Input
Amino acid sequence: MSSVEARPLSSTLAHDLLRLARPKDWIKSVFILMPLPFALASGAQLDAASLALGIAAMCLVCSAIYAVNDVLDAERDRQSARKRSRPVAAGRVSKQAALGAAAAWLAAGFALGALSGHAGALAVFSTYTALNLLYSFGLKHVPLLDAFILSSFYVLRVVLGCVLVDVVPSNWLLLCSSALALLIALGKRRGELMREAAALERPALQGYNRVYLDQAMGIIGGVTLFSYALYSLETPLLVPGRQFASLPFVAFGVLEYLRLAQVRGEGESPVDLLLRSPGLIVAGIGWVVASLWSVGGATLLR
Output
């Protein structure tokens, strides 16, 4: 008897449902934490329990969307060597079971969002869900629009971070995060484009080519750096003389991402790219440390 056959049915189903939830992609919730150093510097109060509930809620809402998307894309995924092993495409989880799990995760996510005590969190979850459904039901097949919508999912995480600490997101924060998110979205499309038969899996790729995406990523990468530099210069939250402390880490992170995406073609999965790149991890940690120092980190804990 094989190890798969020997495994209890309930254990197998639990494992497949976990795969359906894509917990590895929860790392995208790091965008929720981006506003925190600057929000705390502006006087916002951090409620760790409320923040944790909001992050957990976002992860559950995301898992619900992933499950719905896998149901909608099941037939197409079966034709993909990379995606055919997904639980729904492989037939290990029925479409009905996947939709049931999605409904449960979505309800749990909204419930945790309500428990966080921030009504704005529910508005973010509702917007995120609606945009994802529009994306899944057709807008992901429209070139360029698909990248903008994909980037909005990251920006909504940043907005959620502001909601969870009761601050209004600044125009600078929205500009910087939007540019960074769009860079990631374009890099994802470039990575997909480099695979054979990719257009069959994602029709929107027929509207792109490598030269266009390389140029677009270069432009958006420049916007990301320029907007962050201007924000660092203009915001009153940073300690004089420390305004540009975090800028080198942002510059290195953007350029390293461009190198990995354009030279090595690794942008298809932003999560995998981050987890495999020591340079990006170090840049992220460096940004956190430098940002806390630039806003006078020692005073934030008082």
Summary: The chain is about 70% helix and 0% strand.
